[in-house]
Predict the structure.
Amino acid sequence: MSDSKDGRVDRESMWQHFFQDNPYDGFDPTSFPDDVQGWGSDDPIFERLIEYLRPKIIVEVGTWKGRSAIQMAQICRARGLQTNILCIDTWLGTIESYTWRERDRAIHSSLKLRHGWPHLYYQFLANVMRRGFQDMITPLPQTSEIGARLLAHFQIVPDLVYIDASHDYSDVVKDLVSYFNIMQPGGVLFGDDYIHWESVTRAVQDFANHARHPFWGRPGKYAIMKGGDVRSIPNLV
C-alpha cells in the first residue's frame, strides 16, 4: 500500500485500507438497470467548491445510488484532478424509506429488498461502473459514526465532505461534529436539505452558532469552512 508524500492516500490505495479485495472486482453491472435517481446533485455548489479547493480527498456521507458522487467525479475528471471519493453509507435506507412506504413507494422500492434485505448497494456499484469511475469512487458500507472513526484511525484527511445521510436532528449534529473534526484545515463541509428539512436546518445552525463557525446556506444547500469563512469563496453566495 502506498501513500503520497504529504501523508494523504493515493487513489489506487484507498480501497486497500478497508478491504482485502477491490469491491468492484467480479461484479457484473448489467445485473442491475441504469438508475441514478437522486436529489440535488446538479446544484452548482459542487462545481464551485471543487474548483476552489481542487480536493485530493472527498468524503460523501449518505450516498444512495451514487448520483452526487458520480457528479463530483465528473467535475474532478474534467479538471484533471487525481481525486479520491469515499462514499460512506449503510445502503440500508433511512427511516423515511420505511415510514413513507405508502406515501412514496419509489423510495421504498429503491431499496431493492430481497427476502427483507436491501440490495441498493449493488445498484450503486452498477451505476459507478457504467460510468467508469470505479478508479475514483470507493464505497464503504458502514454507519457514518464508524466511518468517521475509521477515517481517523487510518489518518485519511478529507479536503471536502458532503453530508446527505439521516435527517434526524441528533444524527445530523453527530455527523457535523465527527466529520468537521477530521477534515483538513481550510477544507469545507457542505450538505443537502438546508431549509427543506427543519431538523437539518436547525442542526446546521446550532452546530455553527455553538462553535462560532461562519456558515452559508440557502434553500437546498449549506457550507462551512474549517478555520475560515466559507462566504469568501468566489461565486458561492
